[in-house]
Amino acid sequence: AIGPVLRRMDFAKELASPSQPFTLRAGRDVSWAELPWIAMLVWAGAVVAGLAALRAVLRQRRARERAEALLRLDQVARLNTLGELAAGMAHELNQPLTAVLANTQAARRLLVADPPEPEVAREAMDHAVAQAQRAAQVLTRLRRTIERPQAAQVLGPVDLVASVRKVAEMLEPEREDARVRLSVQGEASVPVQADAVALEQILHNLLTNALHAAASQASGQHQVVVLVARDGAFGQCTVEDSGPGVPEALRARIFEPFFSTREGGLGLGLSLCETLATGMGGSLALAPAGAAGACFVLRLPISGAPAMKEPA
Predict the structure, then answer these.
(1) Is residue 186 in some structural domain?
(2) What are the two backbone dihedrals, phi and then psi, of residue 29, each rounded to the nearest 5 degrees?
(3) Residue 235: inside a domain, yes or no?
(4) What whole-number distance in Å separates Cα of residue 306 and Cα of residue 34?
(5) Over the chain, what is the mean pLDDT?
(6) Which CATH number do you get for residue 160?
(7) Which pLDDT tens digit goes with each residue over 241-267?
(8) Which of 35, 76, 150, 288 has a Cα-to-Cα distance from 139 of 20 to 30 A?
(9) Is 87 among the domain residues?
């Protein structure tokens, strides 16, 4: 044998009769050098190549399945986003368009009255024009959101008190119909860093909800109190109503999309308001339950103050 012995093979065979014993013995030593290394290497290479090919095929299949799953998830996400965007657009445009309709109808009645009241009709049309411009601004902001999400809001100095009074004036017909007392208290001016249209949208939703809540009470005081003040580096607007309040079991869900405590509500108003407030570096929160009614607190950075992140 050449080299170390790998295996020894022995063979023995009895060939003679019992009277004439004869045994044939044979032996063979197999060494490492005598093995068919080329054939073995070819076979091993074929096995390794086959396993590698199988692994590559399985990897490609898993990658394709993952890509298809991600594509399906992306399509579902796009559909959900489109649905939320459409619902949000309907929600945001409903208020100014309703005001346009109400003011134009009032102007028409005033013009055909006997005697006609052109001055009051002109004032109603001015309100309608202002609401139409607000609807156009909402569409512009939504378009910026789609085209350039990071530039959707144009931040600048805005007087929080003036914005509250402007929105309160917009809602004066609704306040009169609901027979709710609305008072604005606090400082004379609180300049905050905000997007004017987004801020008005937040205030419009908060005041509208507060008016509805206060008017829903069968008895007691029907009132909404808005308090505007400074709180450190933030301007704070508190909207409190005398309505039934938010049940404790529902408080954690009040800002969830498509969740509403009001029958027939889309459940997008507060969710959109929270998103807008957060995008401006502020916050919108439901204050702890008080004696009665609901109390929402909007906080926005003071204009010109050092940048601070609103705590979550």
Answers:
(1) yes
(2) -105, 125
(3) yes
(4) 85
(5) 80
(6) 3.30.565.10
(7) 988 888 887 887 787 766 666 655 555
(8) 76
(9) no
